[in-house]
Amino acid sequence: MTITRDQTLDWIKACAEALAENRDYLTRLDADIGDADHGTNMDRGFKAVIYVLPELHNKDIGTIFKKIGMVLLSTIGGAGGPLYGTFFLQAGMRSTGKMELSLEDWYLALDAALNGVILCGKAEPGDKTMVDTLTPAVEALRHAIQDGETFQQAIVQSADAARDGMQSTIPMVARKGRASTLGARSAGHQDPGATSSYLLLKEAAETWRA
Fold first, then answer.
1. DSSP labels for 118-156?
2. Which of 67, 99, 121, 201 is paired with 86 by a 20 to 30 Å CA distance?
3. CB neighbours of 51 closer than 8 A, spacing ≥ 6?
4. This model's pTM is above 0.90
């Protein structure tokens, strides 16, 4: 099984819908340990992405991802802009010229996206960031490939690992970002960036599982 360009665009549309639906939820999470704007910022960024999608319908997947990265970089406020912009830019670099993605292609794209986010945010697993969601998701894909799992099985396992990673941020004390200024008071709250990252991977599993 491979993911076509059109299925990739379907995923992006589903992400925009999920972020719009969860805008207030993400903002409430951010109100606890951040600037109370993550939901609004993510929704604004992906609404801008939806606006440019018509001009990308005949482009390769790498070009689509890179354009999305540039749009998010310029429309998502705060730290999310550089992080999510980098996420899609790096995924695009690994997908240049591709009109469809195999499981290996998706793994390489997501791994590149994770590494870009790590470099951009200078965060590591355990810092209470989106890295805590993305790292287990990438690892789950790698193990699925090694175990000979199908694309559908792999993306479900990856989304499940992402969910567990997201939930693991609740007891963590933040070491990066606005939340880090709270010290021990940041514990007991789910990280909003980890949550928005999970939503993207959850939508990938649901969109591509059919």
1. HHHHT--TTSSSTHHHHHHHHHHHHHHHHTT--HHHHHH
2. 99
3. none
4. yes
Task: Give kind and range of the element (H or E) at residue 43.
Answer: helix 38-52
Q: How many domains does the chain have?
A: 1
φ/ψ of residue 60, rounded to 5: -75, 165
The amino acid occupying position 83 is L
Domain that holds residue 40: 3-208
Q: Is the dihedral of CA 81, 86, 108, 47 positive or negative?
A: positive
Tell me whether residue 192 is exposed, middle or buried, using C-beta atoms within 10 angstroms of its C-beta: 0 to 12, 13 to 18, 19 or more.
Answer: buried
Which is higher by pLDDT, 203 or 179? 203
DSSP structure class, residue 4: E
Question: What are the E-state strand segments in 25-142?
Answer: 100-101
Per-residue pLDDT at 127 exceeds 80: yes
Rounded to an integer, what distance in angstroms lies between the CA atom of residue 186 and that of residue 54?
Answer: 41
172 with 132: CB under 8 angstroms?
yes
| CA-wise closest residue to 58 among 92, 26, 99 | 99
What pLDDT shows up at residue 210? 63
- Whether 189 contacts 32, CB under 8 Å: yes
CATH of the domain at 73: 1.25.40.340
